[in-house]
Design a protein that fits this description.
By secondary structure, the protein is an alpha/beta fold. The chain has helices spanning 18-29, 41-49, 80-90, 98-108, 149-160, 179-190, 209-222, 241-250, 261-265, 270-273, 285-289, 299-308, and strands spanning 9-12, 33-38, 53-56, 73-76, 115-121, 129-133, 165-170, 172-174, 194-197, 203-204, 206-208, 228-231, 237-238, 256-259, 280-282. It has 2 domains: 9-173 and 206-235 and 280-289, 3-Layer(aba) Sandwich (Rossmann fold), CATH 3.40.50; 176-204 and 236-279 and 298-308. The protein contains 12 helices and 15 strands. It is globular.
């Protein structure tokens, strides 16, 4: 797939993950040329079906893929599940995401890249309570997320050295194909029990995956170098409210499987478990100040879209 005159070139890591797929589809729909970093020929074919040009390589290994990395926009979404598994093997304090970042950061150097958007999640900030915090608050993540903090700290040095880096912290992302389908929607439609996370469930700041992708593409053009942005809706919700809302929208009874929070965290994906360590509320005032508006401003709007696509 060739690049049309005047089109923006975007390089996307983890293009087949939940958020990566949405970013690729959105960029292609807007006429941008997308380079998707994939590890195998099978993944490359899947990326091509999304409309991207596949680049085969691995973040952990320098190679020819680095020649393609100096695009106009870079969306760096290192797979959380891979990082989490590697951290468990090596010890939470002995591994950071740095090893997955350096080959990419060094490849772009002082090239023509206009924005390098580094994507993490709000779980890096830990549980700060029910009052929304801003990006300037200190990070105090749970043990399972501590390995990413050194990598984030190093980004300030890269920004000072001239790399156009901005960081986006995603809230509790949901949508069709996410944890929501497996943990909530499918069990309710099948009449099975749904996990209740503790007595009331922790407070989370959600974001529909489509709005998540829209916000990241928006920030590629509107963020400031060195800036940090929470990509979350304006309203926080209890994690257990997802199930109650879905059951109400589909007019089905809700059968609950009540579990202590610590036990429930062990049964879900790392991406969801990171948001379940206590009440966490995040302000999106900085994101909204860039001019971004939400297509799915509330969980009810977002869940209705998910159900409409089933």
């Amino acid at each position: 797939m060739g690049k049309s005159a005047g089109a923006t070139t975007a390089f996307v890591t983890d293009p087949l993950g939940l958020v990566g797929r949405s970013i690729v589809r959105l960029l292609v729909a807007r006429g941008h040329h997308v380079l998707a970093l994939t590890r195998t020929f099978e993944e490359a074919e899947r990326a091509r079906r999304l409309g991207a040009s596949a680049v085969i390589g691995d973040l952990a290994t320098p190679g020819r893929w680095q020649d393609e990395a100096a695009a106009d926009w870079i969306f760096h979404l290192a797979p959380l599940s891979s990082c989490h598994a590697r951290a468990r093997r090596l010890g939470a304090d002995s591994f950071t995401r740095t090893s997955l970042d350096e080959t990419l950061l060094d490849a772009i150097g002082a090239g023509a890249t206009r924005r390098f958007l580094y994507v993490a999640d709000t779980a890096c900030y830990g549980a700060h309570g029910a009052l929304p915090i801003t990006e300037d608050e200190s990070m105090r993540p749970a043990r399972a997320r501590r390995w990413i903090v050194p990598a984030l700290d190093r980004l300030d040095g890269y920004a000072l050295a001239g790399l156009p880096i901005a960081i986006a912290f995603l809230g509790c992302a949901y949508g069709n194909g996410t944890w929501l389908r497996e943990v909530v929607v499918d069990p309710i439609l099948a009449g099975r029990r749904v996990i209740q996370f503790g007595r009331v469930g922790p407070l989370v700041s959600p974001i529909h995956v489509h709005d998540c992708a829209r916000a990241l593409v928006h920030l590629a053009g509107r963020s400031v170098v060195g800036g940090r942005y929470f990509v979350v809706n304006s309203d926080t919700v209890r994690i257990n409210d997802f199930a109650r809302t879905v059951a109400r929208l589909v007019h089905r009874p809700l059968h609950l499987w009540r579990l202590p929070l610590a036990v429930a965290r062990a049964l879900v994906s790392p991406s969801l478990a990171g948001h379940l360590h206590g009440d966490s509320a995040f302000s999106n005032i900085r994101l909204r100040a860039t001019g971004f508006d939400f297509k799915f401003p509330t969980v009810e709007h977002g869940l209705q879209q998910v159900l409409d696509t089933l």
